[in-house]
Design goal:
Blueprint lengths: L26 H4 L23 E7 L12 E7 L11 E6 L4 H10 L17 E2 L2 E2 L21 H15 L4 H16 L6 E8 L5 H9 L1 H7 L9 E8 L39 H21 L3 E2 L5 E2 L4 H8 L4
Parallel strand pairs: 6-7
Antiparallel strand pairs: 1-2, 3-7, 4-5, 8-9
Helix pairs in contact: 6-7
Family: Belongs to the peptidase S58 family.
Protein name: DmpA/ArgJ-like protein
GO molecular function: aminopeptidase activity
């Protein structure tokens, strides 16, 4: 959350006098002084910072019935814990609008606690984002126990306001005219059909399933920060799950099998569950939105230009231009 040689065609090698483009990177590595965080990221800034979570991603570029270069997809496998079959976890889903099985089995076996691969991988291999090459992104946040107050302002809005002032003062500036033309093309692109997004949120905080659904809804807040409008044709799915055990031991599952039966099916029993008070989870909501915002930016930063079906090419976000413009305001 993310091969045939013909799926991606490299650009012409630069001459010795041509500047080398910066390598693909996450947004905070590109813009060192950019502060997106009210909450501290985890050590890997990845879903695998949540204890127990294991992830495997795989890009798929070959299909026996498809011409070379026309298949760009993949699969992501996320496990709440290694022994997921016998140790269940709570989860819930929120719908905002809206591969072979062997790949999944392979992913379960290879899932690890390492930082999750980003960019052109998993189910996001062939995806777009804001008419640029999109892909998989990841981030994590550590929510402190004590209360803290945070304030901030959206950088994007400040930049657009400044660009408007510059254009009024310099209406014939060729760079500003080119930028205005680009914005006009972006405005026209809004009439195109929206795509879809799937976001998975993992937490160690003991949340009731209803609270997990509320947490999943906050993913849309993070998407809105980076320009998602939630138009009618778009299909957006958010899933939140926890890795914490909510009982003194664990949530008992798989106690009735063909080999054994460790529970009386006709004698109702109870579980003692402890979970976070729903009135005290604002910090979890805010950290979820913050992490999702960075996930989208990281996906854009890590994705690479790709050529696919019918030689259609999707260009990656030009990080050198992003850095050039952003350094004026940071």
């Amino acid at each position: 959350m993310t091969a045939s040689a013909s799926t991606s065609h490299p650009t012409t090698p630069p001459t010795s006098s041509s500047p080398q483009p910066p390598p693909r990177c996450r947004v905070c590595d590109l813009l060192r002084t950019l502060n997106l965080n009210c909450f501290t990221p985890g050590p890997l800034n990845s879903p695998t910072d949540v204890p127990g979570v294991l992830v495997h991603t795989k890009a798929i570029h070959v299909h026996p019935s498809s011409p070379a270069g026309s298949t760009n997809t993949g699969v992501t496998t996320i496990l709440p814990r290694r022994d997921w079959f016998h140790h269940a976890c709570f989860a819930d889903l929120f719908h905002f609008n809206g591969v072979k099985p062997s790949h999944v089995v392979e992913g379960i076996g290879l899932a690890s606690s390492e930082a999750v691969e980003e960019g052109n991988t998993e189910g996001s291999t062939g995806m777009l984002c804001h008419d640029l090459k999109g892909g998989a992104g990841s981030a994590s946040r550590i929510v402190p126990v004590q209360e803290k107050a945070y304030t901030g302002a959206p950088v994007g809005r400040a930049i657009l306001e400044e660009q408007g002032r510059l254009f009024r003062e310099n209406p014939e500036d060729p760079q500003l005219l080119a930028h205005a033309k680009m914005l006009f093309e972006v405005e026209k692109a809004k009439d195109k059909k929206d795509g879809s997004v799937i976001i998975i949120l993992a937490t160690v905080a003991p949340l009731h399933p209803l609270r997990l659904q509320r947490l999943a809804k906050r993913a849309m807040v993070g998407l809105a920060r980076v320009g998602e409008q939630g138009h009618n044709p778009s299909g957006d799915i958010f899933l939140a799950f926890l890795t914490a055990f909510l009982t003194a031991s664990e949530i008992p599952v798989q106690r009735v099998t063909t080999q054994e039966r460790n529970v009386d099916l006709w004698n109702p029993s109870t579980l003692s569950i402890e979970y976070v008070d729903g009135q005290t989870i604002n910090s979890l909501f805010e950290s979820a939105a913050e992490a999702v915002e960075e996930i989208i930016l990281n996906a854009l930063g890590m994705a690479e230009t790709m050529t696919g079906h019918q030689k259609r090419t999707v260009t990656a976000l030009p990080l050198d231009r992003v850095k050039h413009f952003m350094e004026r305001y940071l």
